[in-house]
Amino acid sequence: MQSQAAQQQFLAQVDHGEPVTGLLWKGLSWQAMAWHGAEIRQCIFEHNTFVEMDWRSCHIDTVVFAGVRWSATTLKDCVFTSCRFVDCVFERATLEAHQFLACAFEGCLFSECQYAEGSLLDAPILDLRIEACQVKKLVLSGNQQVRLGFKDSTFLHLVLADFDFGNLTLENANFTNLIAMECRARDYDFRGVPLAQSQFTDSDMAGSDFSDADLSQACFKGCGLQACRFVRANMRQALVLEARASQAVFAGAQLECANFSDADCEGAVFRGADMNMTILNRANLQHADFSDCSMTFTDFSYSNISHADFSGGRFMRSKHHAVIDHETRYGSRAGILPADHELLRAEQWVRLS
């Protein structure tokens, strides 16, 4: 009876637009109730359960949730500010247009949730697992003491700002359009991870392993990819512009229409890769291994391919315009377009004029 009276008093305050301040609730079970426009400040919820609740346009400020469980609950247009979540669970919850601002998460779990849109910003602690969830749009930025785990979940648009992948454990996670520019992912294991249309511009990813990953239309512009492994990776239409990829391994990769222009790929291994219409203009490809590659309409123009190995490679209308090829090992040059001397003279004239 006391718990029912407390809940009725709470709902009455919410219905009258009054803020709820400075209260402690222990061990209450809230079920099938609507909180619309609730303002809750400096309260404590300890071992409460929220089942089939409807929270809309709520503002929760400086509230502590300890051992709290949200089950089959909808949270829409809600803002949590400077709250603390300890050992909390969101299960089968739906979160839409949702914000956590400067909130601490300690040992928390999102399980089987539908996360339509939201953000986790400026958390002093972010110890959180996301399991069996469908996440459409989520932004993580400015968080400290990060410890994340993504398992059996699909992310359609995840933004990780200034992120260190060393703080993330992946297990059967699927990403499309992951935005992680200027991130750190040294020696990280991305093997077999779906990462189509993802952006890693200007990130430090040296030594990471992307073998068998789906990187179609991914962007690695300006990234540090030294000694990375992309063995058998799908990199159709990937952008590796201006990347630092010396000693990287692309053996057996699908590189159709990928662009490596202005990249440093000295000593890189492309052996057996499908390089149909791959563009490698102005690239440093010295000592690179292109043996047994399929190079249909591949464009190496203006690149330095000195000491590179093309033995066993198959060319068809491949462009080697104005390349530097000192001691390059070609094997058969059949299929390489003849040098365009008139174009080269015209380019030299333009540079001198």
Automatic annotation (TrEMBL):
Stored InterPro entries: 5peptide_repeat, Pentapeptide-BTB/POZ_domain
Pfam families, per the entry: Pentapeptide (PF00805), Pentapeptide_4 (PF13599)
Top-level lineage group: Bacteria
Name listed for the protein in its UniProt record: Uncharacterized protein
Protein source organism: Bordetella genomosp. 2
